[in-house]
Design goal:
Low-confidence stretches: 21-25
CATH architecture of the largest domain: 3-Layer(aba) Sandwich
Helix content: 40-55%
CATH topology of the largest domain: Rossmann fold
Distance between the termini: 12 Å
Strand order of the largest sheet: 7-6-8-9-10-11-12
Number of helices: 13
Largest sheet: 7 strands, mixed
Structural class: alpha/beta
Strand content: 15-25%
Mean pLDDT: 89
CATH class of the largest domain: Alpha Beta
CATH superfamily of the largest domain: Response regulator
């Protein structure tokens, strides 16, 4: 179903915008920098690059990508290299990438999909409605959203009392604020475990078992997403239900996810990229928040773990994997 949604998304993009039909002598090869704090993310291959293709952009034809994928500490140098390559646009996929891009340039348009930080509070934009500078995009910096995720997890597992939270310390800490506040209201003990690299995960899961935590919540992070297979393997090994933000975790064996619809976000960011490459000023394009959120439940995983999913969750789920 997720794959079908993706194809429908691309079809809608293609219908919404005409293909570039410039005469050969007018044709320009646009340079787009891709900045992301993880190894080469599959999201770009399946989503952003595909969405740009639906809008008429072809790598090697009228589009050239400057890839900047690496650890958070490598991003400033990568951003500088992309800026020096005279990119027409820098597309960022995290708060660490946004910081690096804005540190490298205040002239080249920066388009972000950032689910952790507040661009106005960081001084990168004058306001959401009128950013005014070289940054625009899609931001989710609402502390209450992390609280909502914890509420959904507690509703799914009513007897839950302890939760281990996987956190990428290179990101903005805003999502943890609402999480910790909600934990008090829900009478949950939350153990935040910093994950700086994949080698830390084994120890984190052993500690989760020792603390008798009843579930593991994966916070939003490109770096954590790149460790998905290892996280799922450890969750299965230790019989710990996993809650993530995006459906790729749930489809591949996690218990559930609740978060922004990544296909929708990426398709909309491609539309913004198209506008900017056609001459729009990023400072005139309103910064937006996600409007679609997915709740996906994996009943196969629930059965393996001996968990009964409440009917209230199943009725609200956008997708149930049976």
């Amino acid at each position: 179903m997720i794959r079908r949604r993706l194809l429908l998304s691309f079809a809608a993009l293609a219908a919404a915008a005409p293909l570039h039909k410039a005469r050969p002598e007018e044709r320009k090869v646009f340079r787009v920098g891709l900045l992301w704090n993880s190894p080469h993310p599959k999201m770009y291959d399946d989503l952003f690059i595909g969405a740009m293709g639906a809008l008429g952009y072809r790598e090697g034809d009228n589009l050239r990508f400057e890839y900047g994928f690496g650890r958070p500490d490598e991003l400033p140098a990568l951003a500088k290299r992309i800026a020096q390559a005279n990119a027409d646009l820098i597309h960022c996929g995290s708060s660490a990438a946004v910081r690096a891009a804005m540190g490298a340039t205040r002239k080249i348009p920066v388009l972000a999909v950032d689910l952790e930080s507040d661009p106005v509070a960081k001084g990168f934009a004058s306001s959401l409605a009128h950013p005014g500078g070289n940054l625009t995009g899609f931001f989710l910096d609402l502390p209450e959203f992390s609280a909502k995720r914890l509420e959904v997890l507690k509703e799914t597992l009513p007897d839950l009392s302890r939760v281990t939270v996987l956190w990428d310390p290179s990101l903005e800490g805003t999502p943890l604020v609402g999480l910790k506040t909600a934990a008090k209201t829900l009478r949950l003990r939350v153990f935040v475990s910093d994950v700086r690299d994949g080698s830390a995960l084994d120890a984190v899961f052993r500690a989760a078992v020792d603390r008798k935590t009843g579930a593991v919540m994966v916070m939003q992070s490109p770096r954590l997403d790149s460790y998905k297979d290892h996280i799922l393997e450890l969750g299965a090994k230790h019989r710990l239900p996993l809650m993530a933000m995006f459906a790729n975790f749930t489809v591949d064996g996690g218990l559930l996810n609740y978060g922004p619809n990544v296909e929708d976000l990426t398709s909309r960011s491609a539309i913004y990229a198209d506008k900017i490459l056609k001459g729009a000023n990023p400072g005139d394009l309103p910064i937006q928040r996600p409007t679609k959120f997915d709740l996906v439940v994996n009943l196969k995983t629930a059965k393996v773990l001996g968990i009964t999913i409440p009917e209230s969750i199943l009725l609200r789920a956008d997708e149930v994997i049976r």
